[in-house]
């Protein structure tokens, strides 16, 4: 088993270097090229909190200024780096039946100065909170899955406020866009960039938008998009609610099919689908209403589906099941890579932090696929386990005692300066 680990570690190191060599080419200055590699390595490290301070200490820098400069001031284009990550994912995980997954996630924040923040519903929190929302694009194939792109959702309270835009560095070209519109742009960019894909999947926020569905048909991309139970579809008996159609289905219309492999076994549900020829438009193709029923509770979920060619029910079910992988990606990037731990208020810094987290996640996804571990009695290596092993075997350098002492002194000096400033400010107004 130890021999297998050594082989895997060497392969992981090669993959990491391959990705970082490509990304580093986007940076003109050698200092930035070195720092971006150290920054991604810091994101992969098991640090209790991830920010420019902790990442700089992990890299052995003498202060956080270099990492802060990389995220806030250095000259580089985060969109081009995400394009490099997309190409890396296409080369390592690409498959003709690839699925593009769209979903948003929220980062809870305090105050009102962080770009995009306002009180809004967050699925992460399950309620209305003060947070940022971002639409993410993930790629899933039989080889694995990874985040590949992102778009920050900017509410009208931001797009319509010139002062807030200037303070947060929001580009003049950025205007208000709904989440489905942001998702459509991400998908269009991925298709134009050559990411091999056949399907798109998303939740009700995207399935309820007819413009997004039409755009996908225009790209000849099949889709399985969740819709509300009240969603109305055209049938030979007129326009009907999705839940009304489900009530009238005979027992033989339902088939028990697994939506994929879960931690505790196959995810079996009862499924039915109904052809919707009345929904045909200029894009031709085939429309369906897909219905999922929980075997225990009877709870139902509904999906609008389209494909340029006829497909069997189990194909649509497989695409619907793929949607859950983006939740796994959110969990992995938040718990292990610091996706939501950024402390940056401005537009550019937020996109740069998020882009480098996406790059770290793409490396882990590719490395798990390349892992040669086949020992009996072990599950396939997970992203979280690979991250821990990669740090222990490849990243973690021999640390000098002097480095730890120097950082302790640096932090305490910074805290002493801040304390003095707070007391001096208070003395101006308090007796």
How would you describe this structure in keywords?
431 residues, alpha+beta, ten-stranded mixed β-sheet
Written overview of the protein:
With 431 residues, this protein is of the alpha+beta class. Helices cover 46% and strands 22% of the residues. It has helices at 2-24, 30-44, 52-59, 65-72, 78-93, 156-159, 162-168, 179-192, 204-207, 210-218, 242-247, 313-322, 325-336, 347-370, 383-395, 401-427, and strands at residues 99-108, 118-122, 127-141, 144-153, 199-202, 222-227, 232-235, 238-241, 255-262, 265-275, 286-293, 300-307. Strands 1, 2, 3, 4, 5, 6, 9, 10, 11 and 12 form a 10-stranded mixed beta sheet that branches. Strands 7-8 form a two-stranded antiparallel sheet. Helix 1 (2-24) runs antiparallel to helix 14, helix 2 (30-44) crosses helix 3 and helix 2 packs across helix 14 (347-370). The longest helix is centred in the last third of the chain and has 27 residues, at 401-427. Residues 1-6 have low confidence and may be disordered. InterPro entries: IS701-like, IS701-like_DDE_dom, RNaseH-like_sf. It comes from Actinoplanes palleronii. This is Transposase.
Give the structural class.
Answer: alpha+beta
Poorly predicted segments = 1-6
Average pLDDT metric? 90
- Quaternary status of these chains? single chain
Strand content: 15-25%
The residue fraction in helices comes out at 40-55%
Shape: globular
Q: How would a textbook summarize the main sheet?
A: 10 strands, mixed
Between the first and last Cα atoms, what is the distance in angstroms? 69 Å
Question: What sequence of helices (H) and strands (E) makes up the elements?
Answer: HHHHHEEEEHHHEHHEEEHEEEEHHHHH
Helical segment count: 16
Give the tally of β-strands.
Answer: 12
From the alpha-carbon coordinates, what is the Rg to the nearest angstrom?
24 Å
């Amino acid at each position: 088993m130890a021999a297998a680990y050594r082989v895997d570690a060497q392969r992981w190191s090669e993959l990491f270097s391959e990705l970082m060599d490509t990304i580093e080419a986007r940076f003109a200055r050698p200092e930035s090229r070195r720092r971006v590699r150290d920054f991604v390595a810091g994101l992969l490290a098991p640090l209790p909190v991830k920010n420019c301070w902790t990442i700089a200490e992990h890299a052995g820098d003498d202060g956080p200024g270099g990492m802060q400069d990389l995220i806030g001031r250095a000259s580089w284009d985060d969109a081009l780096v995400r394009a490099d990550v997309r190409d890396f994912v296409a080369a390592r995980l690409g498959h003709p039946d690839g699925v593009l997954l769209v979903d948003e996630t929220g980062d809870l924040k305090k105050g009102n100065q962080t770009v995009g923040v306002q009180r809004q519903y967050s699925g992460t929190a399950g309620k209305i909170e003060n947070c940022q929302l971002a639409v993410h694009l993930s790629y899933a194939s039989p080889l694995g899955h990874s985040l590949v792109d992102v778009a920050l959702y900017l509410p009208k309270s931001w797009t319509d406020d010139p002062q807030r835009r200037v303070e947060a560095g929001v580009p003049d070209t950025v205007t208000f866009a709904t989440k489905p519109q942001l998702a459509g742009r991400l998908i269009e960019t991925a298709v134009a960039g050559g990411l091999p894909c056949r399907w798109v999947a998303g939740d009700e926020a995207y399935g309820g938008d007819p413009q997004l569905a039409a755009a996908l048909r225009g790209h000849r991309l099949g889709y399985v998009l969740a819709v509300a139970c009240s969603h109305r579809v055209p049938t030979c008996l007129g326009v009907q609610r999705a839940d009304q159609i489900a009530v009238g289905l005979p027992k033989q219309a339902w088939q028990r099919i697994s939506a994929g492999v879960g931690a505790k076994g196959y995810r079996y549900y009862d499924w039915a689908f109904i052809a919707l020829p009345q929904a045909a438009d200029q894009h031709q193709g085939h429309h369906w209403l897909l219905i999922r029923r929980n075997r225990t509770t009877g709870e139902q979920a509904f999906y609008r589906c389209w494909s340029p060619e006829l497909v069997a029910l189990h194909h649509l079910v497989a695409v619907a099941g793929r949607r859950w992988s983006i939740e796994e990606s959110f969990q992995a990037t938040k718990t292990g890579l610091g996706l939501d731990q950024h402390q940056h208020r401005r537009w550019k810094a937020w996109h740069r932090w998020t882009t480098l987290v996406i790059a770290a996640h793409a490396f882990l996804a590719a490395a798990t696929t390349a892992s040669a571990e086949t020992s009996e009695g072990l599950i396939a290596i997970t992203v979280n386990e690979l991250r821990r092993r990669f740090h222990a075997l490849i990243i973690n350098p021999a640390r000098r005692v002097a480095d730890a002492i120097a950082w302790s002194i640096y932090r305490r000096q910074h805290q002493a300066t801040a304390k003095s400033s707070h007391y001096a400010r208070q003395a101006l107004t308090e007796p």
